[in-house]
Write a structure and sequence with these properties.
Blueprint lengths: L4 E5 L8 E2 L6 E7 L2 E5 L4 E3 L11 E7 L2 E5 L4 E4 L11 E5 L2 E5 L11 E4 L3 E5 L2 E5 L2 E5 L5 E5 L2 E3 L5 E4 L9 E3 L2 E3 L1
Parallel strand pairs: 1-4, 2-5, 3-6, 4-7, 5-8, 6-9, 7-10, 8-11, 9-12, 10-13, 11-14, 12-15, 13-16, 14-17, 15-18, 16-19
């Protein structure tokens, strides 16, 4: 999708833009130069594969240079369960986006604006988050590549990163982020 406006998906309590079904796999999803506004659910709910077998709903998800405003749920809920390292995805690139007032609804089951569980490669760079729920990363296997670089978090908590199985500090790279409460 490029240069698209999606708005007023709010007639129901949880009107999600894209929900992957169980055992579905999108090879590549790319959204650029688009606007999402007044949506009562999630934008991308890619979290049906919870049987923890290393299966996931999207291999590559790229979101670049978009505007998100008044989104009740998460922009991205991406789940890859299990501790098997036989798969290399999923991959998220979330860059140059502006997000305003997102993730705060009581029905947002992730309690996050972006929730990544077991994602192998995540690049969240050069975004503006204004009054949003936090970003949550849960590392589960191996040595995932997670970077959160050059973002502005205005009235937004700093990202939460947890190593669920590895001992010690998280392995995510965080730099040049600005958090203003």
């Amino acid at each position: 999708m490029s240069n698209v406006t999606v708005e007023a998906l709010d007639v129901n309590n949880d009107f999600h833009f894209f929900v992957a079904g169980s055992r579905s796999l999108a090879s590549y999803i790319k959204v650029t130069d688009s606007t999402f506004k007044n949506i009562s659910g999630d934008i991308f709910r890619l979290s049906k594969e919870t049987d923890d077998l290393g299966i996931f709903n999207a291999d590559y998800l790229t979101m670049d240079n978009n505007n998100f405003e008044n989104i009740a749920g998460a922009l991205v809920d991406l789940y890859r369960g299990g501790r098997d390292e036989s798969t290399f995805g999923p991959h998220l690139v979330f860059t140059n986006n502006t997000v305003t007032n997102a993730g705060h609804d009581k029905r947002n089951r992730t309690k996050s604006v972006i929730k990544l569980h077991g994602v192998q490669v995540a690049k969240i760079n050069k975004n503006h988050f204004n009054n949003t729920a936090p970003i949550t990363l849960e590392h589960t296997v191996g040595e995932p590549i997670s970077e959160i670089i050059g973002n502005n978090f205005n009235e937004t908590s700093a990202p939460s990163i947890v190593e669920l199985y590895a001992l010690g500090e998280h392995t995510a790279k965080l730099s040049n982020n600005k958090v203003v409460k």
